[in-house]
Amino acid sequence: MPNWLDVVVRSILFIIVLFLITKWLGKKQISQLSFFEYVNGITIGSIGAEVVTGLEQKISVGIVAIVTCAAIPFLAGLISLKSKGFRAFIEGKGTVFIKDGKIMEDNLKKERYSTDELLELLRKKNVFQVSDVEFAVLEPTGDLSVFLKKENQPLTPKDLNLSVASVKEPQTVIMDGKILDEPLTTIGRSRSWLKTELEKLGVSLENVFLGQVNSYGELTVDLYDDKIKVPSPQERPLILATMKKCQADLELFALGTEDKDAKELYMKNSEKLQQAIDKVSYILRN
Amino acid sequence: MTVASEVKQCLASLKGVEASLSSLALRSQDNESKRVLQETMMIVHEVVNDIQNRVGELEREEFQYKGF
To answer: Where along chain B do its domains lie?
Structure first.
């Protein structure tokens, strides 16, 4: 076998081996969570390159080396699932850089991070003023996790005492003009339901680039033909508007009638309806 | 339009709201929303019952407008 052919065969073989090994080790190897896996990734890569180009090496030896190198983090991962001490040793612990809004200079020195580097890491988290930070920790992966002071955190509905409708993830049911059956069954819908909804919108299935169903069973579509305007789902706002109208009507009847009992009945029910509106408006509002 | 027919119209709208809420509750994937929608539907249902009775009274008073 000529040398170049040998190299080609070895390359293909080792790409397959590396692919299988990485698949076996899983996503953790790719994200290089711990420095252990980081080091291991480099080693496996080097062995692969060495055996592919160094024709005097035996293929089998290379494969054994790679499998061994891959098995060690695999086993280490299994053990570290059980033991916290082992985990801390293998994957390392986070180092607190900022605590109670104060920079821990000793810890910075221990990790050999300069002030500039700390500022850089903070800027990556969109923090430009150190005094905004309550707590920051350097993760074993080298990322800085930043916990801002309460007044600098983004405002949430909870802060405003707002109740918001909780929603489930939307399901993508049409892709490139084709119906996806699996997500459709997840939300308990059939193809015929989808076809009816598409008819309601007045679009054909072939023209739909992407279609999603939200948590309220409303279908929203994006079309290939961007000139066609598709109505957005109006059912929920419509219910709310009708409720408001009925409530106003009941109040009008209450004002209009002479009958005392009837007046009372209308008043009572208009109040009841108002309560219902208050209760449900956060869901019905878009 | 007479008062009776206006009340009837309102009753019809309310029935529509009740049905829409019910169908929305059935379709909703989230349990919390489902519960709130169902409770609202119950309240609307009570209102519908009251107005229904009132429509009955109105029809007795103004017999010529009967028919619903």
So the answer is: 3-65
